């Protein structure tokens, strides 16, 4: 019973939504700074 | 709200399967958001071609309106829901990138007395709008959004604060609509009052920068008076904008504390868990940009990336906003916004007059 409950219990994600947003934003900023992304039009 | 976010949900299905499930909704977000951008550009082009000064209604509001129309008429099929639910992820990514547009160094360019006026304007406006919201019995988070929208920088401040205090989509839609429509009115009224009072370029520019909420409208209201007034308006407005991080940080801590349950034993850990980490990302990017790590072109690219993220975000906000819920709020938020705008305009005009006499 306990084993079944444990297997059904959802694991908490390693990174929160906030963290993923910061990681993506920093990665994009880094790509722009390095020059991998030359220009983002609007 | 966060439980509805597909990208953060720990599910047993595979990474690729999850990714495929998001595609229809993401495509709808792009289509709705891009339609908003096209409408904004078309109105600007029409105004330019016919030499008309039309209010700049930003793509953000159009995206919300189109999304609202779709969601509250034909409805959104279940197939699109998972992708639409990613809008909060784009909101947070966009806010972090938005940090590149708020250089702390801009504050210093304005000069001592004007900086004091900016600080007084922000503090007085926040206090007044909060009191007004309470008097009209608005929802506390809607009051917070209206307060930051009218005291700092319109849509950007509302966007950043919405994420930081986890406000409802309906509240954010309402606050953005109120601030943008009232900002459009001030675009016409400020130059008329400025000419009527024979304000100098410096005084008028400072007034426009302090009194008009949205950056686009503040710059337009200043430039409509004169080029010199436009430049002062830009400086005053950017100084206000630069304060956004600190104000959002303050509100994030305030709401994290306020929503704390009584039985929480480790308050510091709870506050950290509730604290929106992307606010720190925003401050980090703002600090890096202030340190001139990025070139001017790179800053433009970062700002454009944040706009693309907000384009997706507000298409999602519109698609998830229930008009019935908006209707429940009635006209009170608009009254609060309108009264606040008029009082803040008089307050900032008084501040500018006072400073002008002091410096003579």
Task: List its salient traits.
heterodimer; A: 42 residues; mainly alpha; disordered N terminus; B: 360 residues; 17 helices
Describe this structure in words.
The complex is a heterodimer of chains A (42) and B (360). Chain A has 42 residues and is mostly helical. Chain A contains two helices and no strands. The longest helix of chain A has 18 residues, at 17-34. The N and C termini of chain A lie far apart (56 Å). By secondary structure, chain B is mainly alpha-helical. In chain B, α8 (169-196) crosses α17. Chain B has one domain (2-359). Chain B starts with 14 loop residues before the first helix and ends with a helix. Chain B has helices at 15-49, 59-72, 78-84, 87-98, 105-109, 112-135, 140-165, 169-196, 201-211, 215-225, 227-242, 244-258, 267-274, 278-290, 296-319, 323-328, 332-359. The longest helix of chain B is centred in the first third of the chain and has 35 residues, at 15-49. The interface between A and B is medium-sized, with 24 and 33 residues.
Largest sheet of chain B: none
How many DSSP helices of chain B? 17
The two chains with the largest interface, and their residue counts, are: A-B, 24 and 33 residues
Number of strands of chain B: 0
Relative helix content of chain A: 55-70%
Number of domains of chain B: 1
- Rounded to the nearest angstrom, the distance between the terminal CA atoms of chain B is 54 Å
Rg of Cα set of chain A? 19 Å
Mean pLDDT over the full residue set of chain B: 81
SSE order of chain B in H/E notation?
HHHHHHHHHHHHHHHHH
Q: What structural class do you assign from the helix and strand content of chain A? A: mainly alpha
Share of residues in helices of chain B: over 70%
Span of the ends, CA to CA of chain A: 56 Å
Spatial shape of chain A:
elongated
């Amino acid at each position: 019973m306990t084993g079944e409950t444990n297997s059904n219990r959802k694991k908490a994600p390693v990174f929160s939504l906030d963290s993923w947003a910061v990681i993506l934003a920093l990665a994009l900023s880094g790509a722009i700074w390095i020059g991998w992304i030359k220009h983002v039009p609007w | 709200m966060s439980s509805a976010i597909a990208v953060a949900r720990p599910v047993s299905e595979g990474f690729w399967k999850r990714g495929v499930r998001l595609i229809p909704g993401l495509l709808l977000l792009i289509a709705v958001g891009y339609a908003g951008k096209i409408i904004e550009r078309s109105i600007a082009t029409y105004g330019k071609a016919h030499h008309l000064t039309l209010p700049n209604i930003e793509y953000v509001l159009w995206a919300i309106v189109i999304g609202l129309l779709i969601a509250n008429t034909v409805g959104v099929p279940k197939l699109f829901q998972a992708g639409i639910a990613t809008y909060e992820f784009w909101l947070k990514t966009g806010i972090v990138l938005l940090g590149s547009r708020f250089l702390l160094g801009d504050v210093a360019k304005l000069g001592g007395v004007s900086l004091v006026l900016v600080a007084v304007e922000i503090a007085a406006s926040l206090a007044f709008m909060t009191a007004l919201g309470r008097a009209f019995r608005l929802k506390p988070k809607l009051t917070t959004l209206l307060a930051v929208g009218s005291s700092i920088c319109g849509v950007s401040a509302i966007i950043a604060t919405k994420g930081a205090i986890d406000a409802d989509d309906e509240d954010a839609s309402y606050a953005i609509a109120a601030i943008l429509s009232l900002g459009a009115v001030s675009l016409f009224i400020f130059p008329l009052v400025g000419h009527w009072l024979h304000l100098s370029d410096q005084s008028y520019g400072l007034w426009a920068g302090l009194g008009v909420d949205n950056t686009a409208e503040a710059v337009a209201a200043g430039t409509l008076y004169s080029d010199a007034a436009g430049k002062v308006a830009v400086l005053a407005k950017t100084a206000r904008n630069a304060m956004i991080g600190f104000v959002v940080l303050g509100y994030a801590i305030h709401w994290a504390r306020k929503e704390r349950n009584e039985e929480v034993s480790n308050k510091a850990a709870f506050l950290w868990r509730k604290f929106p980490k992307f606010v720190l990302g925003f401050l980090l990017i703002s600090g890096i940009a202030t340190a001139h790590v990025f070139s001017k072109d790179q800053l433009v690219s970062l700002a454009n990336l944040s706009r693309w993220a907000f384009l997706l975000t507000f298409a999602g906000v519109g698609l998830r906003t229930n008009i019935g819920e908006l209707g429940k709020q009635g006209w009170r938020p608009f009254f609060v916004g309108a009264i606040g705008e008029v009082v803040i305009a008089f307050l900032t005009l008084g501040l500018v007059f006072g400073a002008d006499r002091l410096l003579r």
